[in-house]
Amino acid sequence: MSRNPNGPSNMLSGPSSSSSPCHAKIRIIPRKPGEGYEFVNEIIGGAIPKEFIKPIDEGIKEALTRGVLAGYPIDDVRVELYDGSYHDVDSSEMSFKIAAHLGFKKAFEMCKPVLLEPIMTISVTVPDEHMGDVIGDLNSRRGQIEGMESRGGTQVVRAFVPLAQMFGYVTDLRSMSQGRATFTMEFKKYVEVPNNVAETVLKKAS
Q: pTM score, two decimals?
């Protein structure tokens, strides 16, 4: 999420159908990376009966899994259910689940969501004579060189590289170094995808 419209996102979801009137008002609040999804029920006074709270949570979870941008899942958000309404006869668990699902998607779109990609920490041990080729290749993969260290005829190159750019790297590194270089890789963090890359991804998914 790149912003909150008017503070927390407010969205009235539903009714899911003319025969099953139900509404669930929610706020969507971004959380820190890695904190995951949190659902908070703030309903007071029976605006929505207790038996419909879990279906609302389940509907939101479905929306998170299916995503809004190119079908990628959504994570690290807090959803607060703070109000709603129901019909004594026509409301059902399914109607609230559908209403919550649709309402969340509409509210999330108002937040200008962005695509994130995993960034990996790469450590490449390479002979001195092949270091230039390795650095040039990492740069071509949208890598950011973090540092280098000399170790008796070899160089250890550390860089941050998007995981999407690392496919086939084992073969390419072997070719560049005549089989003499090695590397390790581990997850570092998620960052926003550059605009030009995001446009390409979204275009392919449409």
A: 0.73
